[in-house]
Amino acid sequence: MKLTDYLLAENITAAEFARRLGRSRSTIGRWCTGQRHPDAGAMRAIMEETKGAVMPNDFFESRESGQC
């Protein structure tokens, strides 16, 4: 599942997700749009926070842009 889709499905704002991960809102936005990819530590945190709903491959499968 794409991070954008997860945030929408769970009704979580990018700002709230950023707070939970200890990252900036702009970083979450860049991950959602594909401008940047999370590093290994962030990937682990995303998998833990989403309980496996968002996995590393979800950031690489498609170049479609999402939006947070």
TrEMBL record:
Coiled coil: none
Pfam families assigned to the protein according to its UniProt record, in alphabetical order: HTH_31
GO molecular-function terms, A-Z: DNA binding
Protein name: Transcriptional regulator with XRE-family HTH domain
Organism: Nitrospirillum iridis
